[in-house]
């Protein structure tokens, strides 16, 4: 049963300073039993050093997935494209979550993205605007929007009176965009925050009532305002959220140990902490003045200088620092630094997040505002809250060293600074109280949650029968079949969460948008298997770290209101069974290879097949499979002593298979009747394939047109445009998948074999393989005769009427696609299960031929040419082509309603519900 009161979709503007406050608010909502999903742009996710694991994160697009704002031509182009693409991908996400047992009923959005309101209304959802800046700044922009403040002010010292704010301010106190004519487009966006604010249900402000009483009361007459701050981790305030110790999101990696070790050796309240945030850039002259101001103050200081800013420091400045006097770091854990007893002052740009942190932790400030809202925040720090001083700029806009020195000493030493320091302590206490139980912000959050519509009515329409956690081995060839099986389960009202490793997610060009994806760790987050060095090291570490992070994910989902009750795992990861048992979950092993291959590994496991076979032509009899096979037909790991460690993993798939509730096979009964019947006497087997998108088979899942996951970007237009100009069944399609690597000699033989066949061909040659082609091969191709591409949309190609034959490595996914789409094959197996698949293609299903290798292991050009012509031209090939069509029809029927695989999936789901 879902225990959530509601489900909020959080949509921040993609910058750390906007995301963190909304992330913290989300944690408060979560503590009050609201389910949270945070939507971040793909470009933003790519730059993150850390990501919170306590809330679900989903990706949308801003239209610039590779570089975000920096990829766009200009600010206007970015905002325009974000509105267009963001609206579409946000809608897709809402639809995806509609199909879960926790549908969204509220969008909390950043008003920098006002189009989110229209999306919310389109789906009948509640909308709440979340202003990340304080209410005074919001009020200023509101009056710009209303035309009360004329732009730009005529004089820098001109007094500006703002309704709702008793203090007069001059032009130097307003946000920089307001007084800068060059910032017209940004001011337009800031003013547009209010363009449709009258349509929202609630306006949330990242501040607290006690801090801005008058302006909040004035603004509350216009909009339904609730202050919900300060939005900093609970363990620095009320300490009610015990796991909320940090934001959990950062674009930089902090030098935590260096900072804290150094601070631990400094006297209480003796250190000036200096930071200008994650974006601000100081000019060279200002950087030098600041450096000497700090040094001349004679105070110990901890200064954050981002690596891009370090070249602006005076020559030898860092080298000449003594360890007692100063420490310069590239980034630091700011909350821990501000909380540290040795910190006595914060020299800050007065970004609102930094200001709010200083207020919450009782640290007095020296304000050196640079741009945006910072001048207004500095005004409040100095004149309204009286918790700091403002370092004045000269006529060149530079704060001189003597001013910096004077400000630091005033705050940290002098009598005048005593009131500042006392006020800082006072506001610290108030900040803690407002988020504690019964405080003003806590009450506002409670009221916000209470007014959210109950999720129970939505659940009645979208109830799930069960929740399966899918755990594939992290390579595309293993993930795609499990992804497709997941879509079949989802169509039968099973909730799906797919767990992928962080290292794998980093390499993806595409990710499926139709289901939830969560990250676990294989212990090598930066490089996966390649980072590990050896296969054994990778598998060992993956077991250790994977077990822990999978357990954490299950625990996270347990409190989400949609707890997992079944793990479907790849038997390459047998430890998943133990994790499932630990949590009392059902477990199902999902074999991505066919049943004949699985049977061979099973008999290796049982010692029936002796390793390695003594001769290449030695016949091997395998129980459950009537066709005798040779050593050259078995998976190469079985006959290759060097593959011992990989074989060990393959055999270990069966080590605890007697503990699972089901064994799912990526095949279909009609294809392997004999071996499936035999294996079913040992294990509770269900065939559930072929696992290719529904629109190429039964067409019952209308949105299932592609896998939705790819490591490479296909040259779709080039491939299909070329194929459209070729006659029916005239083209040979050639591909060796995403992993197989041909030797240079084999590459050359293949190239000439294709050319000599006199058939038009479409050949996928990955960019890493292209240098192996014969000199000038691509240049000499005529457009009619051949096309070489780096990657292609394989399903669309195999389905195309111009395709007459598939020259393939016989990877199981490719073989199953060819069977499902009725394309006869020329098999050129390379490694792994491919020799066995080729045996089945040629001798059992009779849907292709196998190109024989010579004694050097090379398939020669004349053999390739002969095989192609046999399949595509000769009478002997007629039976192959007819069989291919027959199997295509059978493949479609087995997944259609009432087919063997469809019945098996139905039975799996029904028993899942019964056991659950």
Automatic annotation (TrEMBL):
<dbReference type="Pfam" id="PF00201">
    <property type="entry name" value="UDPGT"/>
</dbReference>
<dbReference type="GO" id="GO:0080043">
    <property type="term" value="F:quercetin 3-O-glucosyltransferase activity"/>
</dbReference>
<keyword id="KW-0328">Glycosyltransferase</keyword>
<dbReference type="GO" id="GO:0005737">
    <property type="term" value="C:cytoplasm"/>
</dbReference>
<keyword id="KW-0808">Transferase</keyword>
<dbReference type="GO" id="GO:0080044">
    <property type="term" value="F:quercetin 7-O-glucosyltransferase activity"/>
</dbReference>
<protein>
    <recommendedName>
        <fullName>UDP-glycosyltransferases domain-containing protein</fullName>
    </recommendedName>
</protein>
<dbReference type="InterPro" id="IPR002213">
    <property type="entry name" value="UDP_glucos_trans"/>
</dbReference>
<dbReference type="InterPro" id="IPR035595">
    <property type="entry name" value="UDP_glycos_trans_CS"/>
</dbReference>
<comment type="similarity">
    <text>Belongs to the UDP-glycosyltransferase family.</text>
</comment>
């Amino acid at each position: 049963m879902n225990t959530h009161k509601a489900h909020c979709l959080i949509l921040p503007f993609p910058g750390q300073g906007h995301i963190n406050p909304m992330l913290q608010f989300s944690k408060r909502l979560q503590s009050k039993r609201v389910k949270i999903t945070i939507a971040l742009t793909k470009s933003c996710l790519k730059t993150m050093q850390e990501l919170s694991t306590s809330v679900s994160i989903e990706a949308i697009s801003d239209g610039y997935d590779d570089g975000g704002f920096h990829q766009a031509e200009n600010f206007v182009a970015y905002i325009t494209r974000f509105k267009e693409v963001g609206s579409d991908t946000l809608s897709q996400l809402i639809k995806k979550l509609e199909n879960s047992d926790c549908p969204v009923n509220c969008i909390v959005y950043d008003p920098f993205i006002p189009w989110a309101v229209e999306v919310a209304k389109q789906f009948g959802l509640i909308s709440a605007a979340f202003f990340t800046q304080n209410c005074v700044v919001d009020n200023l922009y509101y009056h710009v929007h209303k035309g009360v403040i004329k732009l730009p002010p005529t004089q820098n010292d001109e007094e500006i009176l703002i309704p709702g704010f008793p203090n007069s301010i001059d032009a130097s106190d307003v946000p920089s965009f307001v007084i800068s004519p060059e910032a017209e487009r940004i001011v337009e966006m800031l003013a547009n925050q209010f363009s449709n604010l009258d349509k929202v249900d609630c306006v949330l402000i990242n501040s607290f009532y006690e801090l801005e009483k008058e302006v909040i009361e004035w603004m509350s007459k216009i909009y339904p305002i609730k202050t919900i701050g300060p939005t900093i981790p609970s363990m620095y305030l009320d300490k009610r959220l015990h796991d909320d110790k940090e934001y959990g999101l950062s674009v930089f990696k902090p030098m935590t140990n260096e900072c804290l070790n150094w601070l631990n050796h400094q006297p209480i309240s003796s250190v000036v902490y200096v930071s200008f945030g994650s974006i601000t850039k100081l000019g060279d002259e200002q950087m030098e003045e600041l450096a000497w101001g700090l040094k001349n103050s004679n105070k110990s200081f901890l200064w954050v200088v981002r690596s891009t800013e370090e070249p602006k420091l005076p020559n030898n400045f860092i080298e000449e620092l003594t360890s007692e006097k100063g420490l310069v770091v590239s980034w630091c854990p700011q909350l821990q630094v501000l909380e540290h007893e040795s910190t006595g002052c914060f020299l800050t740009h007065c970004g609102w997040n930094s200001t709010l942190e200083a207020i919450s932790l009782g640290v007095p400030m020296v304000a050196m505002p640079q741009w945006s809202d910072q001048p207004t925040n500095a005004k409040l720090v100095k004149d309204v809250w009286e918790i700091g001083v403002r370092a004045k700029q000269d006529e060149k806009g530079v704060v001189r060293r003597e001013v910096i020195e004077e400000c630091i000493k005033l705050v940290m030493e002098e009598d005048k600074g005593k009131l500042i320091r006392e006020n800082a302590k006072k506001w610290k206490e108030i900040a803690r109280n407002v988020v504690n139980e019964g405080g003003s912000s806590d009450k506002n959050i409670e009221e916000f949650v209470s007014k959210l519509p109950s999720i129970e009515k939505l659940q009645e329409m979208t109830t799930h029968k069960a929740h399966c956690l899918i755990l594939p081995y992290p390579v595309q060839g293993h993930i795609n079949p499990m992804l497709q099986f997941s879509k079949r389960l989802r169509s039968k009202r099973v909730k799906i969460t797919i767990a992928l490793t962080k290292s794998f997610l980093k390499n993806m060009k595409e990710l499926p948008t139709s289901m939830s994806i969560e990250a676990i760790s294989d212990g090598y987050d930066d490089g996966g298997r390649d980072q590990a060095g050896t296969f054994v090291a990778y598998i060992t570490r993956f077991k250790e770290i994977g077990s822990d992070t999978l357990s954490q994910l299950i625990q996270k989902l347990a409190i989400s209101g949609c707890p997992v009750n079944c793990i479907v795992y790849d038997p390459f990861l047998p430890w998943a069974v133990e994790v499932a048992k630990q949590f009392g979950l059902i477990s199902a092993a999902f074999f991505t290879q066919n049943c004949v291959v699985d049977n061979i590994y099973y008999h290796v496991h049982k010692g029936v097949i002796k390793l390695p076979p003594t001769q290449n032509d030695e016949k091997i009899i395998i129980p459950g499979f009537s066709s005798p096979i040779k050593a050259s037909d078995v998976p190469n790991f079985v006959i290759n002593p060097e593959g011992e460690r990989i074989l060990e993993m393959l055999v270990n798939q069966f080590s605890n298979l007697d503990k699972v509730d089901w064994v799912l096979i990526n095949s279909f009964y009609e294809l392997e009747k004999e071996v499936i019947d035999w294996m079913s006497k040992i294990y509770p087997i269900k065939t559930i394939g072929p696992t290719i998108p529904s629109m190429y088979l039964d067409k019952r899942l209308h949105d299932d047109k592609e896998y939705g996951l790819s490591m490479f970007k296909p040259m779709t237009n080039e491939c299909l445009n070329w194929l459209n100009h070729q006659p029916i069944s005239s083209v040979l399609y050639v591909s060796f998948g995403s992993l197989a690597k041909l030797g240079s000699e084999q590459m050359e033989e293949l190239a000439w074999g294709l050319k000599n066949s006199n058939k038009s061909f479409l050949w996928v040659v990955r960019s890493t393989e292209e240098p192996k082609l014969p000199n000038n091969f691509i240049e000499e191709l005529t457009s009619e005769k051949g096309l070489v591409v780096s990657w292609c949309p394989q399903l669309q190609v195999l389905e195309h009427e111009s395709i007459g034959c598939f020259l393939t490595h016989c990877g199981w996914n490719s073989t199953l696609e060819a069977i499902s789409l009725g394309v006869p094959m020329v098999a050129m197996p390379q490694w792994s299960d491919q020799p066995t698949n080729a045996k089945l293609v040629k001798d059992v299903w009779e849907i292709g031929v196998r190109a024989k290798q010579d004694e050097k292991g090379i398939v020669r050009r004349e053999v390739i040419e002969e095989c192609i012509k046999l399949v595509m031209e000769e009478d002997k090939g007629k039976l192959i082509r007819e069989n291919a069509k027959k199997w295509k029809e059978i493949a479609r029927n087995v997944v259609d309603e009432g087919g063997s695989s469809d019945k098996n999936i139905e039975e799996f789901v029904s028993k899942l519900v019964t056991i659950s």
